[in-house]
């Protein structure tokens, strides 16, 4: 249902838009305007099903705009918003057949009720629309718009030879992140392959809102034959012509008007792609006919130990290989998709927990979100991307000294803490305390592995930050000193000259 909002107040416009989205997913906001003239032109061009409009609009008030549109035979539902209790406005609204008249300030519940009533009214009136097509009839079924109606059945039987109470088959093509890129080619391939088939009729619906292509099979009693035809001819053809993810699902529906109920169950079927693999038409019958491994999957203890060692040592590349080995192992297992995902999530959480113990994890919410993405995945491509993003949150590969894998975990963490907290004046003593080692031991190992003392390393990070602020900001020296952990800008300048060979002001002039 296409909707337009004409409202001069931006806050109220946003409020209406939010309410509109919550009332019914079928509502689509196609345009907004802030004055009557723009609203008139917008409605004339877009021809929406619903208009929500303010009465007191600049450049043409709402009633004048509505009267002009009605005179030009534009037909749409309309909810009027009024900021004043003007009897004349109310009278004109009745004469112009408005569907709702709401006083400002808007009460969300009142507007929701009016919109829901309009939605219900439009559904009940829809069968009266003489411009039925098979496509919009089926989309209506997928949106749950129809109930058994004698009049509706009379129209659809007369025009198309079936009713929404008849059975149908539903073939779903999921293309993953390549939907937009491959949609047009997929539709072309389906039309070319199905146009000569005379044992059943089809309607191809590329629905962007769900990022899937639906093929509804109707006017046949041979649904098993249709399913076999799709498995033997359509699925191989799509897999050989389309790159990227190609996941195909089949579902038999007893009553066409119940398409909306089964559409929501498709993701549960679709995830069987992880187990069945490319080129298989996924169906409930096909799954039921296979023997499944019911026990929880276990990954090798050696693999987890190796992954833990890589985590402790900060070896990201090797950790990536551990995850890839696990994925390759699981791809060969035939079991419930949830079992595969549970195994992956357990492995990921163990590594995350190990990372949190040994390192400092700074994006825990994002990490949990990425693990949830594994739980919702349809393809191994999605799982691998989620794992890649998960590992990107692990701050293994640091600049300068931290990139050297020859450093021990303790020294690498000490360098990281020096870089992170140098502006707070972190000391060797504080760092040793956080790492649960003695100050003397840390100092000795730090110097041995980095060839610099802890104090020299902290000073290096400070100097680099000072350089950055001198070149990329207009901050004064006292501000730069404060940001880099120096209480005295003169002392900062002296240290800077010792390291760089010139004062900060000279450095700024020379380098800019």
From TrEMBL:
Annotated CDD domains: REC_YesN-like
Response regulatory domain mapped to chain residues: 2-119
Name of the protein described by the UniProt record: Stage 0 sporulation protein A homolog
Modification sites for 4-aspartylphosphate: 54
Keyword Protease part of the UniProt annotation: no
GO biological process per UniProt: phosphorelay signal transduction system
Domain HTH araC/xylS-type positions: 412-510
């Amino acid at each position: 249902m296409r909707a337009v909002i004409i409202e001069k107040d931006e806050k109220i416009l946003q409020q209406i838009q939010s309410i509109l989205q919550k009332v019914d997913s079928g509502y689509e906001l196609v345009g907004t305007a802030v004055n009557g003239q723009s609203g008139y032109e917008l409605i004339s061009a877009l021809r929406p099903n619903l208009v929500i409009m303010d009465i007191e609009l600049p450049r043409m008030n709402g009633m004048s705009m509505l009267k002009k549109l009605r005179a030009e035979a534009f037909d749409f539902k309309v909810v009027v918003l009024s900021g004043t209790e003007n009897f004349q406005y109310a009278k004109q609204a009745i004469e112009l057949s408005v569907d709702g008249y709401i006083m400002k300030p808007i009460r969300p519940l009142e507007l929701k009720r009016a919109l829901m009533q309009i939605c219900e009214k439009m559904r009940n009136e829809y069968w009266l629309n003489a411009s039925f097509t098979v496509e919009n009839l089926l989309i209506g079924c997928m949106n749950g718009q129809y109930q058994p109606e004698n009049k509706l059945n009379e129209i659809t039987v007369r025009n198309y030879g079936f009713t929404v109470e008849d059975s149908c088959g539903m073939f779903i093509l999921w293309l993953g992140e390549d939907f937009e890129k491959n949609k047009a080619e997929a539709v072309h391939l389906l039309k070319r392959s199905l146009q000569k088939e005379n044992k059943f009729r089809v309607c191809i619906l590329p629905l962007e809102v769900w990022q899937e292509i639906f093929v509804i099979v109707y006017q046949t009693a041979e649904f098993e034959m249709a399913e076999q035809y799709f498995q033997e001819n359509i699925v191989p053809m799509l897999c050989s012509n389309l790159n990227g993810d190609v996941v195909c699902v089949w579902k038999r529906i007893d009553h066409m008007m119940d398409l909306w109920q089964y559409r929501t169950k498709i993701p549960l079927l679709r995830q069987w792609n992880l187990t069945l693999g490319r080129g298989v038409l996924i169906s409930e019958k096909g799954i039921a006919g296979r023997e499944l491994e019911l026990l929880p999957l276990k990954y090798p203890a050696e693999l987890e130990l190796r992954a833990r060692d890589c985590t402790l040592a900060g070896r990201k590349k090797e950790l990536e290989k551990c995850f890839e080995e696990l994925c390759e192992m699981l791809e060969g297992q035939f079991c419930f998709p949830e079992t595969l995902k549970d195994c992956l999530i357990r492995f990921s959480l163990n590594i995350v927990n190990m990372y949190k113990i040994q390192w400092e994890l700074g994006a825990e919410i994002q990490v949990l979100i990425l693990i949830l993405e594994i739980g919702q995945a349809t393809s191994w491509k999605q799982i691998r991307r989620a794992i890649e993003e998960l590992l990107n949150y692990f701050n293994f590969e640091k600049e300068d000294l931290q990139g050297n894998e020859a450093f021990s975990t303790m020294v690498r963490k000490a360098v990281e803490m020096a870089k992170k907290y140098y502006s707070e004046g972190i000391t060797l003593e504080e760092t040793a305390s956080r790492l649960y080692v003695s100050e003397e031991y840390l100092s000795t190992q730090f110097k041995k592995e980095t060839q610099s003392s802890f104090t020299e390393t902290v000073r290096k990070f400070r100097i680099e930050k000072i350089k950055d602020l001198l070149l990329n900001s207009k901050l004064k020296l006292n501000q730069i000193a404060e940001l880099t952990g120096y209480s005295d800008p003169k002392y900062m300048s002296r240290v800077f000259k010792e390291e760089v060979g010139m004062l900060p002001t000279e450095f700024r002039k020379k380098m800019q």
